[in-house]
Amino acid sequence: MRGRRPVRPAAAALVCGLVATGVLTAAGPAVADGAAPGQGRAAPGQGGAVATVGGLETYGDAVFEDEDGEHRMPAGLFEMSVDGGGTLQTYCVDLLTPTQKDAKYHETPWSGTSLGANKDAGKIRWILQNSYPQVNDLTALARKAGIRSGLTEQDAAAGTQVAIWRYSDGAEVDAVDPQAERLADYLHDNARPVAEPSASLTLEPPAVSGHQGEALGPVTVRTGGAGRVTVAPPADAATSGVRIVDEEGEPVTTARDGSRLFFEVPADAPDGTAELTVHASTTVPVGRAFASEGRSQTQILAGSSESTVTADASAAWAESGPIPALSARENCAGNGVDITAVNAGDRPFTFQLMGIEQTVPAGTTRTVTIPLLEDQAYDFTVTGPGGREERFSGVLDCLTQSGDRAGESTQLLSEPSPATVGGTSEDLNLAETGSSGATPLIGGVAIGLVVIGGAALIILREREKQTPRQD
């Protein structure tokens, strides 16, 4: 362990779970709500577990070093309660962002978090697979790490978290306990890249469209370990006559990995939409990322009980004209949100997005990437045929925090008590398109902010290439 300068007070809380501060009251990553299917859940098709973070359950102490000196904070395992049943254990992967108590989290691909652009993300998964709690024989773990005096659960959790921070944030961070520090060094030095795990449950694609009298799809079920999943039909199936069927046209109530599902729409059905939901009980794969619905630190899964996981897909149909199927996904590599429109109709689908007209020709698919600032709250509404609206909202959270940025809104506490969700921070709504006469003005202002912000991000990134990282 390196020699240290005296520990100084910090303006920023340098660990997940230490901060009392307000958070953006935005919806989750690329959440579709309003009139759209999937309201209140992860974006259609993204699927997986939805959980509420509790507290820092098993932890020790660590010391973070930056240009202002050294700052002491707790480091270890969080516990989350899964909607529908189950418990998750997680570590955090953004050292300087607070974890908000009772924040809602969604299982998320690495591409929708800071892990997507982190070349060492695979090494973090190796650490998770080869340390506590996946390895719960602490005597054996201590032996591998060359620790003669053994490990406590607190040492194991602290050492594992410290090793993760060194890769997730590139941070100068050490465990205070010598045993925990030895474990952190062992894990950091021996980590090897491991591929991103599959989602616990998802549907591909998340949205389909077509004409009445057709079987719309296929929608393919993808599971990360669940044997069979339960298929729930559209809520109004009894009156609409829409059925969920397999490739032979037979109604289905269960499915498995690779199953192809279809929306069977009666020929005399009026133009409309429907949604199917699949759910299962399974263990979520170690290494899955969890992103919050507001500004709360990204987590990565270290352990899972049998937990409830769900995924949604939607369908739209019409007799003629444009028939769009819309979905959204955060794209950290592209610094924005991808909005995908599939037009299965016989005429072009034209819509406004941030004051700019977008057109999807009949029978084609188009993806539009909306550039955003880091930590930017967004709120897009796309209006389709018949006035149907699809709304996508969330907060782009793709980068780890710098000490200066964290210090603007946080304060150091001495107890590992995550702050309560809520506060007075105001969301920045980029644009609500297709439903307001002020759309062009709002969109123009938003585009200006994005251009300015994008230039600032480019400058900052160029500086980072030329100077050593401090966070």
Features:
alpha+beta, disordered C terminus, elongated, 471 residues, 6-stranded antiparallel β-barrel, 5-stranded mixed β-sheet
Question: What would your notes on this structure say?
Answer:
By secondary structure, this protein is α+β, with helices and mostly antiparallel strands. It has seven helices and 26 strands. The strands form seven sheets. A six-stranded antiparallel β-barrel has the order 2-3-4-17-16-6. The longest helix is centred in the C-terminal third of the chain and has 28 residues, at 439-466.
Write a compact overview of the structure shown.
The protein is an alpha+beta fold and 471 residues long. Helices cover 17% and strands 35% of the residues.
Strand order of the largest sheet: 2-3-4-17-16-6
Q: Any low-confidence stretches, pLDDT <50, length ≥5?
A: 1-15, 17-29, 31-45, 402-471
Q: How many β strands by DSSP?
A: 26
Supply the number of helical segments.
Answer: 7
The radius of gyration over CA amounts to 23 Å
Distance between the termini: 19 Å
- SS class: alpha+beta
Strand content: 35-45%
Q: What share of the residues lie within helices? A: 10-25%
Calculate the mean pLDDT score and round it.
Answer: 79
